[in-house]
Each structure stands twice: as structure tokens, then as C-alpha cells.
């Protein structure tokens, strides 16, 4: 706890100041419309009243996010390893990678709606496109930037095939792969919220859109706060896992 407070003391101070301003402005001034900007205590009441619905929305959202992210990790890493190691095929297909990877995933929504039978399958497809490219391109970059002496050492001891991939290539390129996963995770929440706000019948984004339609902005703000907490928690957990998986990079920095 002492370490946490020492590390985040300024963050907590800023948060307390912002909440204090929110209390002051909404309770003691008329600067803002009270319907659109309700006071913290009203939002807090809405937060607890809507908790069951928020948790149901969380489960629904994860039902879209998790399958698409798992599929992106599997195919992104597998494809990235292949094209990273196959220089000729990478040179042939690289113009296509550079053409399609920057396209916003929302451009494919009309085709997703037309081709997939349900909102869930269409959303997973769009989220897959969102999360695939950073992982795929990050893996290729990681393979290409492996130090030459790693390749030389692997060749010297006769590592080939699966042993080469799991003992040399994956560990050496893992920082770039995990950076790609982190980028994908951040993008996925943006697209997930947009998709749920305009087409879903449940989900964290749908919760906000539903109460916006009825101008219940206390529930809207409660939904925004809940989404922020969920996203922050997931990103912190990911960073912890990433740090644990890349423990050897921290040791190398300490020894350098």
C-alpha cells in the first residue's frame, strides 16, 4: 500500500481535485445544465442501481471481445512468424499489408452486416480486423529485428523447425508481439463501444446508448465511469502479465 501511494500520490490528488470541482460546479453553481451534468451523488446512486445491468453488459461485451482477440493473437502470431521468416513471400505480400492495415475497420461494417447472420458474428469479425493487424505486423517486426547472433547461435547448435521457433524466435520477438497485443486491446475497446452503441441489444456501449435515448444522463455517466474502470483494470492486468512475461528484459536493463 505504501508503495502504491508513493507511486500514485499525484494521480490521486488530481482525481480528488477533479471530483471536488465536479461537486462544487454541480451543487453550488448554475454553470452546467443539471439534466446533462448531474451531481456525483446522483450518478453514484445510478451506478449502484444499474450495477446488475452493467455487469450483464460487461459479460456480453467480453463475449464479443475475447473470441476476436484470441483469434487475432493465434492468427496474427502464426502469420507474422511465417512472413517474418519467409523473406520472399513477405516482399510479395508487403504492399497488400501496407494497403489494408491502415484502413479503418468501420469501413467493413456494411459487408459484415450483409455477410454474417447475426450481430455477434459480424461484431467479432469487425473486432478481429481491428485487433489482427497490430499483432501481425508487430510479430513480423519482432522477427526482423532479432539480433544476428541469435540466428548464428541457433544455427551453431542445430536448432530447426519447432525448436527454433519456440526457443529463439518467439522469445526474442515477444516484446514486439506483446506491444502489438496492447495496441490491439486499446483499439478493440473503441470499436466495441461504437458497435454496441449502434447495433447491439446488450453490452457496455449499449447501456450508454439506451439511457442517452431516454435522456437519463445520470445513468449515462454511470456507464461511462463503469466502462472506464473496466478498461483501466484490463489494461493494468495486461501490463502486469506483459511485465511478468518479459521479466528477462527488466533483468537486462538492471545489468546494463
TrEMBL record:
InterPro entries: MetI-like (IPR000515), MetI-like_sf (IPR035906)
A GO cellular-component term linked to this record: plasma membrane
Sequence ranges assigned to domain ABC transmembrane type-1 in this UniProt record: 58-238
Compartmental location: Cell membrane
Record key words, sorted: Cell membrane, Membrane, Transmembrane, Transmembrane helix, Transport
Membrane topology designation: Multi-pass membrane protein
Protein name: NitT/TauT family transport system permease protein
Family classification: Belongs to the binding-protein-dependent transport system permease family.
Any matching Pfam family: BPD_transp_1
Organism: Bacillus benzoevorans
Spans through the membrane: 7-25, 64-84, 96-116, 122-146, 176-199, 219-238
Any one GO biological process: transmembrane transport
Amino acid at each position: 500500500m505504501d508503495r502504491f501511494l508513493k507511486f500514485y500520490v499525484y494521480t490521486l490528488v488530481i482525481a480528488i481535485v477533479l471530483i471536488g470541482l465536479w461537486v462544487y460546479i454541480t451543487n453550488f453553481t448554475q454553470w452546467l445544465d443539471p439534466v446533462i451534468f448531474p451531481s456525483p451523488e446522483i450518478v453514484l446512486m445510478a451506478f449502484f442501481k444499474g450495477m446488475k445491468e452493467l455487469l450483464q453488459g460487461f459479460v456480453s461485451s467480453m463475449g464479443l471481445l475475447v473470441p476476436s482477440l484470441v483469434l487475432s493473437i493465434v492468427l496474427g502470431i502464426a502469420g507474422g512468424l511465417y512472413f517474418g521468416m519467409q523473406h520472399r513471400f513477405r516482399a510479395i505480400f508487403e504492399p497488400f499489408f501496407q494497403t489494408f492495415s491502415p484502413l479503418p475497420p468501420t469501413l467493413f461494417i456494411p459487408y459484415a452486416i450483409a455477410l454474417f447472420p447475426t450481430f455477434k458474428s459480424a461484431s467479432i469479425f469487425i473486432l478481429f480486423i481491428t485487433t489482427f493487424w497490430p499483432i501481425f505486423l508487430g510479430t513480423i517486426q519482432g522477427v526482423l529485428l532479432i539480433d544476428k547472433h541469435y540466428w548464428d547461435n541457433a544455427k551453431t547448435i542445430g536448432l530447426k523447425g519447432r525448436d527454433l521457433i519456440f526457443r529463439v524466435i518467439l522469445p526474442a520477438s515477444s516484446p514486439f508481439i506483446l506491444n502489438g497485443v496492447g495496441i490491439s486491446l486499446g483499439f478493440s475497446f473503441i470499436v466495441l463501444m461504437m458497435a454496441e452503441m449502434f447495433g447491439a441489444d446488450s453490452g457496455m456501449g449499449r447501456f450508454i446508448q439506451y439511457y442517452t435515448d431516454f435522456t437519463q444522463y445520470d445513468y449515462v455517466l454511470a456507464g461511462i465511469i463503469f466502462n472506464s474502470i473496466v478498461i483501466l483494470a484490463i489494461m493494468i492486468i495486461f501490463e502486469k502479465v506483459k511485465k511478468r512475461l518479459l521479466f528477462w528484459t527488466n533483468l537486462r536493463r538492471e545489468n546494463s
